Amino acid sequence: MKHNLPKETHITGHQTETQKYGTVANRPLSLDHKVRLASVEGLNQLLADTMTLRDMYKKHHWQVSGPTFYQLHLLYDKHYGEQAELVDALAERIQTLGGVAIAMAHDVAETARIARPPRGREDVTMQLFRLMQAHELIIGATREAARGAAAGGDDGTNDLLVSDVLRVNELQVWFISEQLAGAGIADKEEEAARSAAKAHA
Ligand SMILES: [Fe+2]
Prior knowledge:
- This protein is 68% helix and 0% strand.
- It is built from six helices and no strands.
- The N and C termini lie far apart (80 Å).
- The structure holds fe (ii) ion (FE2).
- The site of fe (ii) ion has 2 residues, from loops.
């Protein structure tokens, strides 16, 4: 049997797309096209940032070192798994609303707003600091998207954002910030302030 696939092994352009990214197909959900479009846009941003945070957890899981290696190696992987579940829930909500979920690494890299860590290893404090920053960005954007969804009547999206995305991120922040106690962000900020004051003296 002959396949009808294009001959090129590397297909570029958009000639093969059946639905463009950023559009929403009709669904009998009793939700306005505009509302679904706005929800999908917010969800795709959160999806890209959540995929980035998920991958940052795996990076840290592999690269962590020091006296807390074992417990952080395990904690990072637990959070990775929970973020991976959120990724799937966000993507499937987008498809449910008739949208197109962002998926591939290059598209995610172009869309995510989380600060890009270096390829190399960093110490535990820096790892934890980056995670806190990423969580805070996602938490802020989640609350904003949840309010927008509720205002438009998209209760399903609001529920997913509040009950799953927000709660999981808040809980993970607790675990990460307790790890930072004694050698955390406050200390790093104090240190920076001290060396800035020294430079001015
Ligand atoms: Fe592993």
